[in-house]
Amino acid sequence: MTLITTKRVYDPIDNNEGVRVLVDRLWPRGVSKQTLKADHWLREVAPSDQLRQWFGHDPNRWDEFKHRYFEELQAKPEIVNFLLELARAKGLVLLFSARDLHCNQAIALQQYLLSLIQKTKGASQDNDR
Question: Which CB contacts under 8 angstroms, 24+ apart, belong to 87-90?
Fold first, then answer.
């Protein structure tokens, strides 16, 4: 089973929660590396500065933000595959610092990765027939 969750960088760490990956372009304010205990910081998986600034965490732009962000992610297959491998092997926690718990890049990235897993499962089930 592939487990991909999201978590604010300010939330307490749970034991055995999987590989912790910070997916923000900027390091979160007031959080030390020791406190965060991220296994990886993948700045390059974060939305471009241009897209991030355009979105501005405006819920009315959420659907369009996801569409544009998914296009950016499609151009980064190495990073996406790395995250998928981590998720399959140990589970994955996408760490973010945004205040909005529902409309942020970690949630969008989680949706994107899970959609790829579903497509893969669907394709493998079709091949089994």
Answer: 87/2, 87/3, 87/4, 87/18, 87/19, 87/113, 87/117, 88/2, 89/19, 90/18, 90/19
